[in-house]
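Collaborator request log, item 7. Partner lab (contact: R.S.) asked for a structural prediction of Methyltransferase domain-containing protein to inform their binding assays.
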Amino acid sequence: MVDVFGMALRDYQNGAYTEDIKTYSSLDEEDVIPIPYLFRTFDEMPKIEQKALQLANGKVLDVGAGAGGHALYLQKKGLEVTALDNSEGAITVCKQRGLKSTVLSNIMDYSGEKYDTLLLLMNGIGLAGKLNNLSHFLQHLASLLRPNGQILLDSSDIIYMFEQDEDGGYWIPNNEAYYGEVAFTMEYKGKKSKPFNWVYIDFNTLQNACESNGFNCELVISGEHYDYLAKLTLKK
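Returned to partner:
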């Protein structure tokens, strides 16, 4: 499988940045991921991410670490942090940038260690892929938590991407799937990734899933565009 994301990160890190990653989604949207944005500093991060990094404590696992910006910030703060990503290129870049502890793995295949904070930023909960995988995903995250541990995650309610009718309701395709489920393909320098599933979860849906999987779910802050930061802790 072509590691499109990792190729782009490596190019940027090695001074060969010439283009951004293109994304194609099942929402008929073509978009780009600006690669410099993936290397942003704390001051350049949205408030939601800054707040999550301020709340992170103890031993931290940064899930889907990408270029490692969040993990590097926490490492500089003196926290014991591990960057996990299933992109070989991303992990190479994390190491080049000075991260001491990295893991090349899919989160669902990773076990053994336990953490005080699991960080899933940039819609990290999207790694669940589909809504019907969410319970399994949350239970796996629970297995990685220390007794008083926390999960900090952000996501968005993408209802705004659907057309509204005159009385304020939304036109959502009635195909039985949850409207936050999206299939993506990434392209970089003419190479395409395999399509992958990604899910954006509105806060109420997340709260319900947490309730049925033994988690407390707290809304920490809401962002400017249907996005939010949530803190999950295991019920006593």
